[in-house]
């Protein structure tokens, strides 16, 4: 494993230094192994590991390429992990969301253009009057994703997407529908939207904190 780790580090150095740019094709396996002083088996293991975390893209019959390295792509693995966690760990993910979500919402109030604000209003209006748990989860995901995208910070948006993906939201909302959550969701989303639309970042941050903390409070209740 130590040899594979060394191979990963060597490829990482080539990417970080700019020798291999996003979208660049890696040299042929034999040439790259010789150049890096590695066995071809070690190089293959390193490439496989980097492909799993979306740093490299192995295209059969074509070659191996550096991906776009966009934050959303690289943080996919975190989303995968988040979807598997339950109980206390899910609560910890929400605690992180409570830190990051208000910041993204405040930034959105400053940076979202009028067209994006209208999109946010349209998402609000798409929630049915008597939504199912699936409706709530899907609408909540789209609403917060649009806000995160509107923050103007791609890393922050990717982190938030990873921390609470569709599977995590579905589990939470299935429980919350038993507790009259639909009305609160609509009320709080509307308040967040209004603050963003009126360009009030402090108010937007406050409502986002209330919204995420409310879900966190529910998760803390004994079952």
UniProtKB/TrEMBL annotation:
Q: Which domain of life is it from?
A: Bacteria
Tell me which Gene3D superfamilies the record gives.
GntR ligand-binding domain-like, Winged helix-like DNA-binding domain superfamily/Winged helix DNA-binding domain
Q: Which UniProt keywords apply?
A: DNA-binding, Transcription, Transcription regulation
Q: By its UniProt entry, which InterPro entries does this protein fall under? A: GntR_C, TF_FadR/GntR_C, Tscrpt_reg_HTH_GntR, WH-like_DNA-bd_sf, WH_DNA-bd_sf
SMART domains xrefs: FCD, HTH_GNTR
Q: Name one GO molecular function term.
A: DNA-binding transcription factor activity
Instruction: Return the CDD domains for the record.
Output: WHTH_GntR
Keyword flag S-adenosyl-L-methionine: no
Please verify whether the record's keywords include Transcription regulation. Answer: yes
Q: Which residues form the HTH gntR-type domain?
A: 1-69
Instruction: Indicate what this protein is called per its UniProt record.
Output: DNA-binding FadR family transcriptional regulator
Q: Write down the species.
A: Sphaerisporangium krabiense
